[in-house]
Structures
1.
Amino acid sequence: MSDPILSLRDLKLGFKTYEGLVEVLHGISLRIGRGEKVALVGESGSGKSVTARIILGLLQELKAARISGAIHFDGADLEKLSRRERQALRGTRMSMIFQDPTSSLNPVFPIHVQFHEVLRRMDRNLTQKQGMQRAISLLTDVSIPEPERVLQAYAFQLSGGMNQRVMIAMALANEPSLLIADEPGTALDVTVQAQTLHLMRDLVVRKGTSVLFISHNLGVVREFADRVYVIYKGRIVEHGPTDTLFSKPLHPYTKALMAAVPRITGGGIPDIAENSEAFLDPMIDHEVEVPA
Amino acid sequence: MIEKTAELVPVLEARNISKTFKAATHEVRALDGVNLSVARGECLAIVGESGSGKTTLANMLLGIYPPTTGEMLLDGALLPARRNLPLRRAIQLVQQNPLSSLNPRRTIGASLRLALDVHDIGTRQERKTRIAALLDEVGLPTEFASRYPSALSGGQRQRVAIARALACEPEILVLDEPTSALDVLVQARVLRLLDELRHRKALTYVFITHDLAVVRNIADRVAVFERGIMVEMADTETIFTNPGNAYTRSLIGAIPIITDEEEALRKTVLENKSAH
Ligand SMILES: Nc1ncnc2c1ncn2[C@@H]1O[C@H](COP(=O)(O)OP(=O)(O)OP(=O)(O)O)[C@@H](O)[C@H]1O
Ligand SMILES: Nc1ncnc2c1ncn2[C@@H]1O[C@H](COP(=O)(O)OP(=O)(O)OP(=O)(O)O)[C@@H](O)[C@H]1O
Ligand SMILES: [Mg+2]
Ligand SMILES: [Mg+2]
């Protein structure tokens, strides 16, 4: 792969606590090519969202976080950028759809104020009226039926899926080079979800945007991603092209995940096989072998 | 199917429920004339468009706010706008996000005890035993009582949330996206637990979710909502193999799937469109 938009090499993360250092990431390496859609899937609590927050430079601002490893974005070493330079990247060339939509929006400002702020990051001279028009068209793109009403509303007056769509619209607004989507479809019905995936694909095609797509929904991952990384307890245990990974999973954890997906053809809720049970215990720290 | 439901005792009924939210400049009709009856011991799934009023319905079932018009009945008796403690005890909620619904500064035991205290259940000693029994019921060891939520995995936290909802022995659980934040392995574990508890304790579930594959494998009947209106209600098998409503068909046709058999099912449902 020539010149990736993002590369992480041996990324480690720990949190300093009263009981000592809690290690969360044990050396993550991954690359995302230009115009590539890469999925990160795996265990709840395995370190997906923290990885995203490190890429955005958000965790670096937390005192308790201990981070090491190399992060390159568009050829630049992120650790060498000043705080201001990193801030300038966020919401413009890199943007993120955060996992918990309702609590990620600001509760004290109506939606249009937050939208305007995002749009002004790219265009300092944007007028109120232009901003409104642009916001309405972006919200229409994510299938919001009454964009004017939604813009005047506060997050608590909207449904979970409406807040999620507002966040998706904001993240797409400035057509970033890298879009990080952290569980972007959890609160959406399947038809609206399909529409948002279509928008992301469209951005990839038009602008060469790259996407890091984090999701528990393996069906969506199969339909959307070019490549998949599987993370388990802070380690990448397997990665490969989407088709290969779904047809021939190698690592026992990946196999266990695939077997646990409920099917729309029925057959009951999957019974977790005995040998997969161990993956569910947070107190067992597995020695995981990474296939070459 | 209608005959079968009529034989079962409706434990919860919504009659012609509407809800309008009023803001300064406009009104939002979140629900419009919904009629719904949940049988004792059944799992009724509520699915549909985002923003179609599912959470609004859940909030009204729990008595968080009353409907604008219409009435609700529990065991055949009208539910008042202001519910007393026993009525609140009968219907409990399990929320989507186990991390934000558990207080991080309270141990698991303290969180469970609070639920017992609120409903004034048992003596001090009995509460202690009850906490151990509750943890056991959801498959967690007694030692977990002294742990904080941060020392639990996502699935374990969600089990604590279920234990807390069960603390005051409700008849009905309203589950609003209870597993959408969990990986599929943990999800399967939690869903199997919910299924087993329902049968063992004769619980009734109102299960709100966007995950139709989950619905297929856990629900007895499915109600489909679009723009505040219940557009279809049928048994699960019918919804997935021969839905009668165009919106339901479009939902089934858009489910992301992973196997060829599922692909075939999706295709059949979409092709049936012409037959209707
Ligand atoms: N600020 C923090 N302080 C201490 N520990 C933290 C902090 N943020 C995250 N963690 C821990 O880091 C681990 C990884 O968390 P992360 O949110 O990345 O998980 P995830 O893979 O996104 O899980 P999910 O699928 O449930 O969203 C978890 O064990 C979490 O408790
Ligand atoms: N407190 C409120 N004030 C004003 N409007 C509200 C309020 N709560 C909900 N609404 C509106 O009612 C409608 C239904 O919202 P609700 O949260 O019930 O949808 P939902 O079906 O749960 O959607 P989702 O699947 O996205 O969670 C939406 O248009 C929403 O904006
Ligand atoms: Mg996460
Ligand atoms: Mg909702």
2.
Amino acid sequence: MKISPSPHNYGKDSVSSLMYGVIVAMIPAMLVSFYFFGLGAIIVTLTSVVSAMAFEWLITKYLLKKEPSLIDGSAIITGLLLAFNVPSNLPIWIILIGSLVAIGMGKMSFGGLGNNPFNPALVGRVFLLISFPVQMTKWPLPGNFPMEYADAATGATPLGVMKEGINNGEPMADILQNIPSHMQMFYGQMGGSLGEVAGLALLIGCLYMLFRGIITWHIPVSVLGSIAIFTGILHLASPEKFADPLFHILTGGVLLGAFFMATDYVTSPMSQKGQIVFGVGIGVLTVVIRVFGAYPEGVSFAILIMNAFVPLINNYIKPKRFGEVKVA
Amino acid sequence: MAKTFSKGGVHPPENKLSANSAIQIVPPTNVVSIPVSQHMGAPSSVIVKKNDQVKVGQLIAQSAGFVSANIHSSVSGVVQKINTIIDTSGYKRKAVIIKVEGDEWMENIDRSAQIIRNFTMSSEEIIKRINEFGIVGLGGATFPSHVKLSIPKGKVAKVLVINGVECEPYLTADHRLMLEKGEEILIGIEIQMKAINVSRAIIGIENNKPDAIAHLTKLASSFKGIEIVGLKVKYPQGGEKQLIKAVMNREVPSGGLPIDVGAVVHNVGTAFAVYEAVQKNKPLFERVVTVTGKSLSKPSNFMARIGVPISNLIEAAGGLPEDTGKVISGGPMMGKSLNSLEVPMAKGVSGVLIMPDNESSRRRQAACIRCAKCVSVCPMGLEPYILMTLAEREMWEREENERIMDCIECGSCSFVCPSNRALLDYIRLGKGAVGKIMRARKA
Ligand code: SF4
Ligand code: SF4
């Protein structure tokens, strides 16, 4: 007979069931990107996922000299997220570099899953953005399953159009003429990184993760809420200079970031109060970067910056203890 | 919305396989071993010797202090020897071994089925009786009941909280007792209310036992001041602090006791034992125990005598299944795995759970993925992942500041961890070390 201390039973979640749950949640957005960006999206996604898995396997086996375990699915998530964060016409070799940086620098150099302070996919993405600014900001225009890859017609993202228009002093009404309607953007019919465009599909994925108990509402709601409030105030104060809150939420990867990247277990705070602080931090930083900074978007940087604050948040924001009051 | 405690909690599969099987009496075996430490506190001192004749209900070991309890023989027969045996704690402990002859009870025990409603004892007399008759908390903690009923100077009891939650999966002993001995339990509660001089008692029962809630609510209409509160199912609602929060919405302060918020908590099984002691002159020498498991042929609830070997109860429930991997005293969340089936039944054994082999092994532990699930389920608002890391690094001072001593060892954190981390194992280790340091500081 076996002897062990209690408890003697286990909950239903394992690391891999959680990770595969996240992957399932990303499938709708992936399919939408295949539809709008066609062959290019498929090539980019496949390259990114396969290479992320391969790099993780190789690094674990030959550099860390441990038994590689790909089954937990976390490398697939990193690969998918990286693909979601780049344009669908990105050359294969650049994707490979991004994937190597994401897995090697972003994750394995810290000791693998659970130890990395920064979201690996974002490390990869920001590295590419700095190293290959031209390729990383040429966005193919959405079509109906287009068959072009590298030669796809490109254009600016709605956020890019907005930023340039505002900088040139164009009236808001004119700028809005040049970008898709909010409804089109919600479905995903706009230029952008391949996984960030499909608002509706991302929302479905998020609801699935909430329903399965993979994530809690704290981070998504605080990110979106703070962006909505902050840009709402700006918009009310000066509708000509600042776009409406919904525009900000639907564009530039806010939904992708709030649902899938800020909620990354390893790089977000442990207490629910801490998660709200983290989410609000991301929201505020995103708006600050967008409105006052040089880059039109800003979610990626905002998440990475807040990632850096996570240890601090965990140290100072503790869950409310039961029976906090001392005995008198 | 149904009431519950507010912080954390988990929902393990309930598996109440034996909920519909009525309490059956199992006759004692030929030989019983009655351990002398079946309660929290000092072991009792044996007052019988080899070859003494004893009757059912006769005192055989005397309480050794305020926090200790009398122990009575559960059978009639001859004392064979006083020996050390392994009991449900897994440790070697002293026990009185009795060879059973007949079933002769002490003459003053009222064995009739008649329910006696009225009592005349004073508060002191009740507490004295409970002390003499060896009653301890039957929820599993086995804390001597007279201690809990003796309100310390300067404190005032306001509410008697009765635990009918039975939040451990599989266990149904309290559930059956509420259905079959409802009136006795209510009288036992009245007696305890008198003992601590309160006019209000609240029985908390989880909503997965609607029959028990309905039954007791009906009966309670003829009792003054006893309320029944249905609670949303959530583990560990049966924890004293969680139950008080759920039914009274008060938080027992860290390091404090229920009486600090005016509450005294007893289990329904204890209330029944109090009834029997005061109204029937019957000491505590038998109790209801659930014997259950997925591959067991007859998951059952037994009224079993203290001292019969667990193997005997398993036999009565259909015999040990072939695929048995683990046998647990108690439930799956907080129970203790047994290293032998010959350990004797004791006052604190509320269940015997047989786990099939394929559910018995620990799963492989992986690295913490910082998913925060352990933090969100901890009913005490602790951060189990930190407590574990600090215990691994033996950083006891920080461990104390992180409030490790608040941990009620409910196991919710280990249960929920997707990386199967042995959180509670390390936390226990830490509690041991920190407890030692704190005691040394006081001394
Ligand atoms: S539940 Fe397990 S994996 Fe998740 S944070 Fe706690 S210890 Fe880490
Ligand atoms: S065992 Fe302790 S640390 Fe773990 S959930 Fe229960 S109270 Fe919290």
3.
Amino acid sequence: MIILEATVITAGYSKLDILKEVGIRVRDGEIVSIIGPNGAGKSTLLKTIFGLLKPRHGRVMLQNRDITGWSPDKIVKEGISYVPQVDNIFTSLTIEENLEMGAFIRRDDFSGRLAEIYDLFPMLAERKKQKAGQLSGGQRQMVAMGRALMLDPQVLLLDEPSAGLAPNLAAMIFDKIKAINKTGVSMIIVEQNAREALKMAHHGYVLAMGKNVLDDSGKALLTNKEVGKLYLGG
Amino acid sequence: MVELIFYGIVLGSIISLGAIGLSLVYGILRFANFAHGDLMSVGAYTALFLVTGFLAWIGVSDATFGPLSFGWRMLIAFPVSMLAVAGVAILLDRVLYRKLRAKKSGPVIFAMSSLGAAFILRMIILIFWGADSLFYRPGMLRPAYELPLGVKIRPDQVFIIILVCVLMTTLHLFLQKTKMGKAMRATSDNIELARVSGIDTERIIIWTWGIGGALAAAGGILYGVDVQLHPYMGWNFLIPLFAATILGSIGNIYGAMVGGFIIGVAQQVSTAFLMPTYKPAVAFTIMIVILLIRPKGIFGGSER
Ligand SMILES: Nc1ncnc2c1ncn2[C@@H]1O[C@H](COP(=O)(O)OP(=O)(O)OP(=O)(O)O)[C@@H](O)[C@H]1O
Ligand SMILES: [Mg+2]
């Protein structure tokens, strides 16, 4: 079953179109990875899906609903959560407060969900009263993902979760992503670390210059000569 | 000297009330509201209207509490005026600043508009009450306690300091313990991420104006109780408010509290060496010095 689909998206920040007729499709329970060079429009695509940018053309469908042009606060209620590439935590709030803000729109008791997030990221549980701004890069990424997971989303959009992390920390974050996916959360992941992103992906997309270049299963893209040469370092 | 420091704390507590609101609004909307001082005046005059007009008219007793210079009328007028000014601040945002936000206006447009709003509020006061100084209780002798070292302290002033401490503690608890307070801090920290999290930032903005307006009203009324009312009182507070806000790191409300006390004490103590008319210059000088040597204020720069 297709849970999220964006079709022929054309979008940009001003007059200029950054995305040109881009499409992406996520099946229920899948990890979909998007790779591509800097400036390809990967972040722009996530922002458009999440309603931070209104597309000039095209549609965003969540299950069978047309959510094109909806505002982020409405989309978040429909079950999509988003972790931005930068500035993705509240630095002056504690870890626990960051997670509470993720659950701001929940009116029910979310202590169970909070406990689940702490189970997933035990490191956060140990420091829940610490200011998020004092944390290291890897811990910040965990806070950011934890915040986004508080609403128990159907689809999670992650923009470069491993950016700027040492290899062992990046590997840890990828493990967490797989663990989150196992709980039934579908995901779109934008990554610079193309090899790791494709390894865990059920399906992968290559984006360049604002256009779809290629899409196939993660495995197929990993063994694709062209992709190997351009994005996997030979 | 001890007396001047005490008077400085009284003045500082009033400056703090205004500076908190200025800082709250800046923290979330990133704009310097030049009308904030005049919200203090509106609060003071709203209370004047209630104390000498409406509450007198409906027959609330004029008696004062023990050694204090005010009674039930003021006790009722105080919270009512806070609510009224909260309403004025929210209204100003809805009819003016929100429109500018929607147009993505630049900081100069915001500054000019808030100057215009300040002017309008002041004119309304001038039209109804004229340009003279007024008192909540004209002709009232205000007895002072003589403490050792020849220090004279008025009971009103002790009351002011206690009340301000209560208001600050309440605000602190609101910001740290309640869901809305935490969301206000989150929005001030990163408004984009607040939106991404589904927080209704427009509602947060309304709360921010309401709290800022209410505290400004409290400051204005307490200044009226301590000194006098004047249509330019709030406007004259603007420099000390900005000095306190910048000193305490703009956007940081705890900094604004501390900054307010520092500016108040500095202003009062300066009168031992300078003519009292130079008080605003003292605040202005501190502000310039801070901007030159530590533009992020004494609490800035450690996070982010
Ligand atoms: N807020 C913005 N306003 C205007 N142009 C922008 C904005 N953000 C990005 N762009 C432009 O849009 C294009 C695509 O940017 P985008 O951030 O989507 O790329 P990306 O694929 O995510 O790259 P990276 O790997 O560097 O994160 C770039 O040319 C960039 O300069
Ligand atoms: Mg990007």
